[in-house]
């Protein structure tokens, strides 16, 4: 398993991570975050790139850089769908098979990760959680204890 590092400043020991469940597409969820919270999420120029068994997979990512240099916010898709053609001689030859891949497999029931990178006060996090609760398109959200997640390094982009 290989992870492509795009931004060195993404990794920080100080962050808060939320797992979100929503049926919305990534850009629609980012729109609702921008509309109903103080965030200003914009699509990153490069998606999170993940290489698994010679397959290159991409997970969409949005970032809010409007805060000071000590804080950033990322919205990252946790799920991507990729297809793989079966080899000749297979029972289902020439039929592409679709597979789901999760950036954080331990949280595969969640569609997105919201990472608050840097030093965020409890008041700021509480205000964001209150604003998130107003987004009816978010079906569930939890604050994740990153120490319990084995694949947490997959969030390094």
Structural features:
single chain, 157 residues, mainly beta, three-stranded antiparallel β-sheet, 2 helices, disordered N terminus
Describe this structure as you would to a colleague.
This protein is mainly beta and 157 residues long. The chain has one domain (2-155). Helices cover 15% and strands 39% of the residues. It has a 6-stranded antiparallel sheet, with helices on one face. A hairpin with a 6-residue loop joins strand 6 (61-64) and strand 7 (71-77). It is globular, with a radius of gyration of 17 Å.
Describe what is shown at a glance.
This protein has 157 residues and is mainly beta. It has helices at 26-36, 122-133; strands spanning 2-3, 15-22, 42-43, 48-52, 55-59, 61-64, 71-77, 79-85, 96-102, 112-118, 138-144.
Category by helix and strand content: mainly beta
Q: How many helical elements?
A: 2
The neighbouring-strand order within the major sheet is 3-6-7-10-2-11
Quote the average pLDDT. 82
Give the overall form. globular
Give a quick account of the main beta sheet: strands, pairing sense, barrel closure.
6 strands, antiparallel
Radius of gyration: 17 Å
Stretches where pLDDT is under 50 for at least 5 consecutive residues are: 1-12
